[in-house]
Specification:
alpha/beta, Rossmann fold, five-stranded parallel sheet, 5 strands, 50% helix, 11% strand
């Protein structure tokens, strides 16, 4: 009888653990798609490994596409939410909007819409903030950077202020194009995001 009880208890525990496990959906651009790298070397793959190492059963779905903009992400998100039913959505978008000189107001509207859709689907949201190279000018760069802080405050979502902290513009941390993080930088990207992601799992 005692053996049965232990087995039943273990089965219930495993069932509870399985039920608690969720899906973490990353919607981003080339930075999260691992452009120029083997996808297994990218920070999103490292995130899946970190989850496993720390005892989380959550599965990571990387829905990032190189070259994507906030408008592209907004268009793709409803189908992704329906297909994967994530408990947490990580938004890493906006860099391409900025590099193309698109209005920061449009970026903010697109990201706000994505946050709303994710919440309606029952998911929490983490926003990964971006900044632009200085050659885009102080006025535009300032307006661009404010988008993420304003969204985080208005929508009450978790924010990593600058996802490329310690990577962007740092010698040896970027690929030859000066735009995409090198392999050596992927662990730093994970460390930048992990303290914000972990409490929401």
């Amino acid at each position: 009888m005692r053996v049965w009880w232990l087995s039943a208890g273990l089965a219930l525990y495993c069932l509870a653990q399985s039920a608690a496990a969720g899906t973490l959906l990353v919607v981003g651009d080339s930075i999260s798609a691992g452009a120029g790298l083997d996808i297994r070397q990218g920070w999103v793959s490292l995130l899946q490994t970190r989850l496993k190492d720390e005892g989380f059963d959550d599965q990571v779905v990387n829905a990032s596409i190189s070259g994507d903009t906030s408008a592209g992400g907004q268009a793709r998100l409803p189908a992704l939410l329906a297909a994967h039913k994530p408990s947490l959505v990580v938004l890493e978008l906006g860099g391409n909007d900025g590099l193309r000189g698109q209005p920061p107001e449009q970026l903010q509207q697109n990201l706000a819409s994505m946050i709303e859709h994710a919440r309606e689907a029952g998911a929490k949201v983490v926003l990964l903030g971006m900044r632009l190279p200085p050659n885009y000018g102080v006025r535009y760069n300032t307006a661009f950077a404010k988008v993420y802080a304003q969204l985080a405050e208005q929508e009450k979502v978790a924010l990593v202020p600058f996802f490329l902290e310690g990577v962007g513009g740092v010698p040896g941390m970027m690929q030859a194009d000066g735009i995409h993080p090198a392999q050596v930088a992927q662990q730093r990207l994970l460390e930048n995001a992990w303290p914000t992601i972990k409490p929401l799992l």
